[in-house]
Specification:
Structural class: mainly beta
Helix content: under 10%
Radius of gyration: 21 Å
Distance between the termini: 31 Å
Order of helices and strands: EEEEEEEEEEEEEEEEEEEEEEEEEE
Strand content: over 45%
Number of helices: 0
């Protein structure tokens, strides 16, 4: 699914909700494909309850960015995720010349912690370069002669959250993730990894082919071993009053599971954890805003009372349990 880039006039916004803005330490999404400029019309509502803000200075024109914005318009619904880009200079912020990237049918999404509520299939087998050989998700695969000119190719689907576990590298390697089959420039290899390294929270907002490139820090070639998984591997189910929730989480990767809970305004959600260690419980509202966040360390019984007090009438919230 390709992304559409649209021009948006600030005067078109009506019915703003109260903004809840965060400045993340790093981006948790993949690079974008090429885009098309059109118009976004008939806007009737905009929400920024769980938007994240960042500044992009990679191109000629710097941009101030709000991500995870939602809007009802002729071409979008509240189920779509928008990334609004405002051109900036040292002296001005041009709010009237915004560009909007649209990611269709993302649904409820905690962008700060990269937690999708939608159910998605497993990540398809990976290929290396032009080889017809496929490599399954969840298993460690070993490759020799890696030199930064041949990519590892993934077919990814929106709402997958990818994790990469590197267990053995003959030498530290620079990595780059792109949506182009053309090898990156030397300056695009910005991340350096070594053995026993796990990269989590790689959010897929746009379905399509993605390319992982690896280049040795020293020498001409490297031998690498790694596995890849979909952290959003669970199926969301509905939880009722006074039932037992249980799940199995893999300790070596960042796993999470999700339940759907129906609450009414001012209703308390009380949760008693009887087993498990080093996990977090999060409650996410249907507007994607986090309304509860609790950590459980060690063993034994702990009661969170209340885990959350529902902030709105008939709010649909989701309780999430994930590895730290």
């Amino acid at each position: 699914m390709k992304t559409t880039l649209l021009t948006l006039g600030l005067t078109s916004f009506i019915s703003f909700s109260q903004a809840q803005i965060f400045m993340p330490e790093r981006s948790t999404g993949f690079a974008k494909a090429s885009t098309t400029v059109t118009g976004l019309t008939t806007i009737t509502n905009v929400q920024m309850n769980a938007a994240t803000a960042s500044i992009d200075t990679a191109g000629t024109t710097p941009y101030f960015i709000f991500s995870n914005v939602r809007a009802t318009s002729k071409t979008t619904t509240m189920n779509d995720l928008l990334r609004v880009r405002y051109p900036i200079t040292k002296t001005s912020l041009d709010l009237k010349s915004a560009q909007v990237e649209i990611f269709k049918n993302i649904g409820i999404y905690d962008e700060i912690n990269t937690l999708f509520m939608s159910n998605v299939p497993a990540i398809s087998p990976m290929k290396y370069g032009t080889s017809t050989t496929t490599y399954a998700s969840g298993y460690y695969h070993r490759f020799s002669g890696v030199n930064g000119t041949k990519p590892f190719v993934f077919d990814l689907i929106a709402c997958q959250s990818m994790g990469l576990s590197f267990s053995s590298l003959s030498t530290p390697c620079y990595v780059a993730f792109t949506k182009s089959a053309t090898a990156p420039k030397a300056t695009e290899f910005t991340s350096l990894i070594d053995s026993n390294f796990y990269q989590s929270r790689m959010a897929v907002l746009d379905s399509g082919k993605y390319y992982l490139w690896m280049k040795p820090q020293t020498g001409t070639v490297a031998t690498v071993q790694f596995s890849f998984i979909n952290e959003n591997a669970s199926t969301q189910v509905t939880a009722a009053h006074n039932i037992v929730l249980s799940a199995s989480l893999r300790s070596e990767v960042r796993d999470y599971v999700k339940w759907k809970i129906r609450l009414i305004k001012d209703q308390d959600l009380v949760l008693t954890q009887t087993s498990g260690s080093n996990v977090q419980w999060r409650v996410i509202g249907d507007d994607s805003a986090e309304v509860g966040n609790f950590f459980k360390g060690g063993y034994g019984t702990t009661t969170f009372a209340p885990l959350v007090n529902a902030p709105a009438q008939a709010t649909t919230t989701l309780s999430l349990k994930k590895k730290c």
